[in-house]
Design a protein that fits this description.
This protein has 19 helices and no strands. By secondary structure, the protein is an all-alpha fold. The radius of gyration is 20 Å and the shape is globular.
Length: 417
């Protein structure tokens, strides 16, 4: 086996991690800015709580489940960069188009739902490829820290985007708030194309022995369907995926939280993105903190996630604003770990040639539970909040037991520690 190294003229591994982070920063301004007001936006177009839960839950499912197809596609074709660019392009286009929804009359709600789902499709297309590219670079700096720093930069955009939307909504309207997001979308695409030109093959940063650079199509002996469902991936990987997905599916979407804040009269619409921005700041801190702890102590730090997820509906859907804000903090912390350090464990469990496939399968399992969780949360919200709290708590007990058992069986505690 050959050990590859980046060319002397190539940027350092840390610089590439930061560059990936800046791309995500700009893109997150777009879709997190929009996501911060999906609840009020859909409500303004006539949606009920169930519809909000369905659209936002289905959006997360699209973003996750369809990675089952796009992960293997990336590994088979080696087109990691092309899929990453296509995915970001969908986000940059679809979110600003939401500004047209109120002009379409009764078709506005359907159009808005379609744009939300297409934007989430962009996430599905790019995420396995982007994560595989980043995993190559991050190993040179520590995967926990690499994914954590990337997520923190990502969250700077997730913090700034909602604030931009809040400012525009305060002086104009929700719809102009969507339109202005075309600017960071264009910036994200310029940054991404520049990075692609500077770093065509991030696998050269992987310090592990490898004969599988980016562009290797991976194993050819398996059929497409077998690849899509993760044939050949370990039992440890699947146990971990199910456990982590239980936390994803049970985490109440911010669409429901934003809907709750507005329909209960706890906050004006213009203030909801500010609350979301605060949650994004918590996500950034969580990603950095937990990523650093993960590199020092191993994956046991992830056992905090089910506890936080269980707290969210009990607090964030309360009738007191202080409790709701505390729930938003718990939501942000859980979300931050789910979007960063949890992905680092996948890279520990799966070899480089199949990581995009593994990320796709992992996200697919998450997505199946996300749509069930989104619809279920919307349905229970309108019928019985105590039942919603109890159901979420029960699923998180199961998730906690599965995570602890998986770490014990796989030996990750020793490898990562």
């Amino acid at each position: 086996m050959a050990v590859t190294r980046p060319a002397l003229s190539a940027p350092s591994a840390w610089r590439v991690v930061w560059w990936f982070g800046f791309v995500s920063l700009a893109a997150d301004m777009v879709y997190e800015g929009a996501r911060s007001v999906y609840g009020p936006l859909l409500a303004a177009l006539g949606a009920s709580a169930i519809v909000v839960g369905l659209v936002t839950g289905a959006g997360e499912a699209v973003a996750l489940v369809l990675r089952l197809a796009f992960g293997p596609l990336a590994d088979r074709t080696g087109r990691y960069w092309s899929l990453t660019i296509l995915g970001y392009g969908l986000t940059a286009v679809c979110v600003p188009l939401l500004a047209l929804a109120p002009r379409l009359g009764t078709a506005g709600l359907g159009f808005a739902a379609t744009m939300i789902l297409l934007e989430r499709l962009g996430k599905a297309i790019r995420s396995p490829s982007k994560s595989a590219l980043l995993a190559h670079v991050a190993v040179a700096v520590g995967r926990g820290r690499g994914f954590g720093v990337h997520k923190a930069l990502d969250q700077v955009g997730a913090f700034a985007g909602p604030l931009v939307v809040a400012g525009v909504v305060a002086v104009s309207s929700l719809w102009w708030g969507m339109a202005v997001l075309a600017v960071p979308g264009a910036i994200a695409m310029v940054l991404l194309l520049t990075l692609r030109r500077r770093v065509p093959d991030p696998s050269t940063y992987d310090v592990a022995p490898t004969d599988d650079p980016v562009g290797d199509a991976g194993p050819e002996h398996r059929g497409w369907w077998a690849e899509a469902v993760g044939a050949g991936l370990s039992g440890d990987f699947f146990r971990y995926a199910v456990a982590a997905s239980l936390t994803t599916g049970a985490l109440v979407t911010f669409g429901i939280i934003g809907y709750h804040l507005t329909v209960k009269g706890l906050l004006p619409v213009a203030a909801v993105p500010i609350v979301y921005a605060a949650a994004m700041a918590v996500e950034a801190v969580a990603a950095l903190l937990v990523g650093s702890v993960y590199d020092r102590t191993g994956p046991r730090v992830l056992l905090v996630v089910p506890v936080l997820v269980a707290l969210v509906p009990a607090l964030a859907l309360d009738s007191a604003l202080v409790a709701v804000l505390a729930g938003v903090v718990a939501w942000g912390f859980a979300q931050g770990v789910q979007d960063s350090t949890i992905k680092a464990v996948v890279a520990e469990l799966v070899e480089a040639p199949r990581r995009a496939t593994a990320y796709g399968v992992f996200a697919g399992i998450q997505g199946l539970l996300a749509i069930v969780g989104g619809v279920g949360a919307g349905w229970l919200y309108e019928r019985s909040l105590p039942a919603l709290v109890a159901v979420v708590a029960l699923t998180q007990v199961v998730a906690l037991v599965l995570l602890a058992d998986t770490f014990r069986r796989s030996g990750l505690r020793r490898r990562a520690g």
